[in-house]
Amino acid sequence: MRRVTALIMLILTATMLRITPAVSQTFPEQRLGMFVHYMWVGHAYDGIGTTWSDGSTVENLDELADNLDVKDFVQVAQSMRAQYLQITAWHANMNALFPSKVLRQMLPGHCCRRDVIGDLIDALKPTGIHLILYIHPSDGHDFSFADQQKVGWNDGPPFARWNDFVNQVCAEVVDRYGKDVAGYWIDGGLPQQVDPERLRATIISRNPGAWLIQNSGLNRDCVDYGAYERFDAQFSSTVWQMNAVVTGQWWANQGFLSVSPEFAFKYTVLQAGTKDNTGGVAWAFSPHPGGRWETGVHEFAQRLGEYVGRTKEALLQTKPSAAFVTSEGIALKSAQYVATESMDGMRTYVHILWPPQEQSLTLKPPANGRLFKSARLLSNGHAVDLRQDAKGLRLTLDPKDSWDLLDTVFVLE
Fold it and tell me: Would you list the domain boundaries of the chain?
């Protein structure tokens, strides 16, 4: 019996090792995500929402839910080497991608039969990719007047019925999925209709380690992290998580690729090296029902994943460098080099995003006074001539080596 028990424990241990995430376990340490809007909005926004690949309208929420190809969906996330995946648990008009007792009772017709979130969790578990659910606790503004009346959206302060309703839905979600969901991304801000402290307590009391992220804000009564859902013209560095669309719209609507994987990779590196950045960047693109994607999306994910794979040691398992600091607000085109460092601080990785004409490059003096003894190329291990003095560091490639126009990575020790 003891041998059988030992064998079972050995199998369980091996299984756990196989599925243990290889990515970082805290939101500030995340560098690369995938952001997906997969939604049916009903009456709220006529003509807006996920469509079939030929542009045909999705007729109802169950049609949308039943036709998500979860296996293909997760394969795309893996191909781009996403560390986390954000998906709309519900969006406009609060049409949820999971069966909900609360919604069936209070807002009939606002949830689907299929547990899309549960199926996605099952598919993600072997990959180690963290799941973040997009929720919208102030979505009552999209409801029909009749639905608003049912749940107290129009009651006025303190909006007791609305907060009761929203917190019941959120409690149901957290109770159902537990720690299989790493965090919750809160859209719509936190207007007067939402009690931020109560919402936080509802989630954290059930999942104490959950990441709470707010779009376009940072209300500490509710969340721990801020996020942007926009881009300025210069693709500047940010300390908050950046969410950026790579086609014409957040949801699949016959769009075309508008951001190259090369540019996306460089911006991912910039975010990874930005001081105090949390969450890096989440690139937004979404599937059509039936396992199809907008034009160029598959290629984008695959090529971005290839670039990340080449430099994963210097990108995914790192923190912003203390020696060569990149501050918030630096435009990508102005960032000739960006630096990260290993979690233990022993190695510094200098990413040359825009190489010079010569074989040499001069870096500013390390901000932390660090003295480096050696330098090598990450790509092939070749030694790089390193000269350091009070004016900074000068790195010189061997004549046989050349700059990688995408990202030449020096490893300094």
Answer: 21-315, 318-412
User: Nearest-CA neighbor of 338 among 394, 410, 281?
Assistant: 410
Superfamily of structural domain 21-315: Glycosidases (3.20.20.80)
Query: Among 363, 367, 310, which residue's Cα sits nearest to residue 336?
Result: 363
Fold match between 21-315 and 318-412? no
129 contacts 33 by C-beta, under 8 angstroms: no
Q: Contact, 49 vs 95, CB < 8 A? A: no
Q: Assess whether the previous peptide bond of 366 is cis (omega < 30° from 0).
A: no
- pTM listed for this prediction: 0.93
Q: What is the CATH number of domain 318-412?
A: 2.60.40.1180
Q: How confident is the model at residue 25 (pLDDT cuts 50, 70, 90)?
A: confident
pLDDT in tens, 311-364: 999 999 999 999 999 999 999 999 999 999 999 999 999 999 999 999 999 999
d(CA 154, CA 170) in angstroms, rounded, equals 20
Burial class (CB in 10 A: 0-12, 13-18, 19+), 209: exposed
3-class DSSP string for 218-279: CCCCCCCEEEECCCCCCCECCCCEEEEECCCCCECCCCECCCCHHHHHHHHHHHHCECCCCC
**Tokens found for residue 379:** 């790509």
